[in-house]
Task: structure prediction
Amino acid sequence: MSMIRRTVFKKSSILTICVFLISCVSLIVLLQARYQNNRWQIERFQAVQLTHSIIRVIKYDAIASQLPETELQQYLAKSSRSKKKIEPIVEIQLEQRIQQAIKELNLGIPIPLIGQPFPPVVLELAKPPKYMVLSPRDRVEHTGGYLLREDLKPEQLRREEQEAEETGVMSAYGAGISGIATFPSLISDGLPYRQTIFTAAHEWVHHYLIFFPLGRTYFSDGKVLNETVADLVAADITRSVLEKYPELHPANEIMLRNKPDSTDLKTLRRDVDGLLAEGKVLEAEKLMDNIQVRWCKEYQSCPRRINQAYLAWIGQYAYQPGSTDPVGDQMRDIRSITGSTEKFLRFVRDITSRQELSALHSELVAAE
Result:
């Protein structure tokens, strides 16, 4: 068997196993008809797209390397692009590049006889669903949420928010997302090359972490921990990919739209937290409304609305500059002390709480 055929066979074998396992779960959930109205059916997406992924690998894997670099990056650079026969080849190329970086960084779970780290990188370029973020009105905390159809118009999204807020207890924000850790990962087809790599790598980290204690805390109290680790590791994977396959046309910083910076966001979050801690919910909401109006006058890009749920949404990405969450600095310190992506991931993948993170952070800082 030729080297190419062996590679295709190994990759398709992994995907086949994943198809079987996830499709069984998906079928059970689908039969329960969990979703109605505007809710997005994640299980149906996975069941269908996994099958497509196997067909795509068998059909295009051997010729994917023949796609010129300029054509790949030009395809991703287009702000709007229709589905063409080049898209599956672009997806395979991106998967291979990220998988190669993961292997070179010694990440992933070794699987005997396969020769590639597990879980495999599998992605689908498409339009992701919306995500409805829920937070109590008396504090900023991402306590729940659900997926919505990707094609909702702004007025439909606003109605969904109003419905979620009917009881007067919760704050809701319908967020656009760039990716989601379905299997295959669903990555927005409107992202430029660098951001596509980063988003796909970020979602792969979620796939990896689900096999460890940290990943299994995501839907309890581990959202911030998981998202921060995913961002940090994805940044390292992205750098590794770009070293071998650099951007041909890096984004022009001057052309980027002006928007509130990290200082704006931190100041707002501090002021809102202060008011809510005093029980001044209405005052905090009036402040957020006023800030939203002001930002839309001052900047070319501003949040569609600002409320507790919006702040909870952006705040859970503690690695990002606008976050006030101490998890971000603690994770950065651990990444610096451990010295490599591999060691960092091995240290943090078994933590299950902020308390454990703080204890690990203190221990490593003291030993340095």
About this structure: Residues 241 and 318 are 24 Å apart (CA to CA). The longest strand covers residues 130-136. The two ends are 51 Å apart (CA to CA).
